[in-house]
Amino acid sequence: TVAICQGIVVLALGILGGFILIKRPTYRAAQFLATLCFLTSGWIAAEIGTDFFEASNGLEAALFLRNLTKLFTTPIAATFVCFAWSFPQKSPTIGRKYSVLLYLIALAYVITLFTKTEWDAKSAEIINGKLNIEYGWLHYLYFGYIFACGLYGVVYLLYKYRRFSSPLARLQLQYVTIGL
Questions:
Q1: N or C, fewer C-beta in 10 Å, the chain?
Q2: Chain-centre distance for alpha carbon 101
Q3: What pLDDT band is residue 12 in, cutting at 50, 70 and 90?
Q4: pLDDT over threshold 80, residue 122
Q5: Backbone angles phi, psi at 15, to 5 degrees
Q6: Better-scored residue on pLDDT, 27 or 124
């Protein structure tokens, strides 16, 4: 029942992302928003798999899928910041090098996930059908990165909201900030 609802959300996000790209394929903010939709649907799909293997006591598969979710969530943070920079119009002061830096940080973290060190997960076990992970220090850096990117993106959208005088741009920013 929960997996069915999650599956519907995955499908809806995939359709929404495709629709956004069809309507505005060259608009940078639309590209970032579609990427957010696709990454979020991948994240939810990996969570569905994690739940399935938790219920069947498949520890290795559940742990692999839990790590795979970070392959989606880390770029979501970078994409959200890039979206904030480009919506409703591109910020003239922020260059491509900052976007590349955000994605390189995300990539570096994802690479460390599959090195099998205790930096991220020290131990893992399934207790009463739920995956229980004792995290290492790298996971807390990951959480800080996700939190900092999310907070920065929202604050930047609110800053743009206060800066714009156009009622349409302000309304768009208001709905997008609340929606995200």
A1: N
A2: 16
A3: very high
A4: no
A5: -65, -45
A6: 27
Residues 175, 180: Cα–Cα separation, whole Å: 8
Q: Tally DSSP H helices, then E strands, for the chain.
A: 6, 2
Buried-exposed string 115-149: b where 16+ CB fall within 10 A, e elsewhere = eeeeebbeeeebeeeebebebeebbeebeebbeeb
Q: Report the Cα 23 to chain-centroid distance in Å.
A: 23
Token pair recorded at residue 46 = 């990996």
Q: Which one, of 148, 156, 117, lies nearest residue 135 by Cα?
A: 117
3-class SS shares of the chain: helix, strand, coil, % to 5: 75, 5, 15
Distance CA 133, CA 121 (A): 6
**109 and 137 Cβ atoms separated by less than 8 Å:** no
**Whole-number Å distance between alpha carbons of 73 and 36:** 10
